[in-house]
Prior knowledge:
This protein is α/β, with parallel strands linked by helices. 31% of the residues lie in helices and 24% in strands.
Amino acid sequence: AKWLIQHKEELKGTFKIIFQPAEEGVRGAAAIVGSGILDDVNFIVGSHCGGLAKLGQMALVHGGVLASIKYDISFKGTPSHAGSNPHLGHSALMAACATAMMLVGIPRHGNGVSRVAVGTLHAGEGRNITPVHAKIECEIRGQTEEVLNYLSENVEKIVKGNSVSYDVESKIERAGYSTTLIECPDLLEELRDVGKQIPEVKEIIDLNAPVGGEDFTLMIKRVVEKGGQGALFRWGCNHRGHHKGDFDLQDTESMPMGFEVFTRFAQKKNGV
C-alpha cells in the first residue's frame, strides 16, 4: 500500500488491496466476494508462502488446489449416573467417536484426489456422567466438486446414522467452503515474465500437485465470472512443514520476493 502511494504518479487505473480474512478455515473469502468489491476487477493476484516452493523459488500455481468444506458437528445426548443407571443415558461422546472413525474410513473417490481430516473432538462433563455434549471439527477436500459432493453426502449420512444408532440429537454446520482453482494461463505467463526480472527469484517452477485448500479460489472465480483473470503464486521459503510450531519462512529473505512480484506486476500493467 505504501509503495502504491509512493508511485501513484506513474500508475493509472484503480488498485484494490484486499486482506484475506479467516483464510485458515476458508471462511473469509465468501464475505469479500459478497461485498461486491471484486465485481469490477480486471486482474486479481494472490500469493502464499512456502508449500513446495523453496527459498529462491517462485511457484506458479496452475491447479491442484482442492475444494474444501469445513464442518462443525455436534451431538446432544441424555445424562445419567454412569454407576447406578447407565442404561438411562445416551452418550454423545460415543456417537462422536463412532462418527470420527467412520469419517476417516469413507472410501476414497476413484475420479480424483480426496481428503478427510478430523481435527478436534471435545465431549463430556465428568468421568461418572453419561456424556451429554460432543463436538467435532473436521474437513473434507476434493480435487473436483464431484469428489467434494461425494464426500459431503457421506458425511451427512454418517452423522444422521449415528444419531439414530446412539439415540442422540445431531447438528451439522458448514463452517467454511472453498472451490478448486480456475487457471488463467495468460496471466500466469505474465507473472512468469515478471519473475524473470526479479534478482531474488533464482528459479520459477510450476505447481499442479494436489495440495491444501485455498479460499482465494472464490475470489478468482468471481473475477473470472465477471470477465477478468486471476492467478495465485507462491514465494518460496525453507520450512519444516506447514501448521507446525517450528515453521519458519526467513522473512527478510523470502518476503521481498513476494513484494517484488506484486509491485513489478503493477508496473507491467501500467507500461512502466
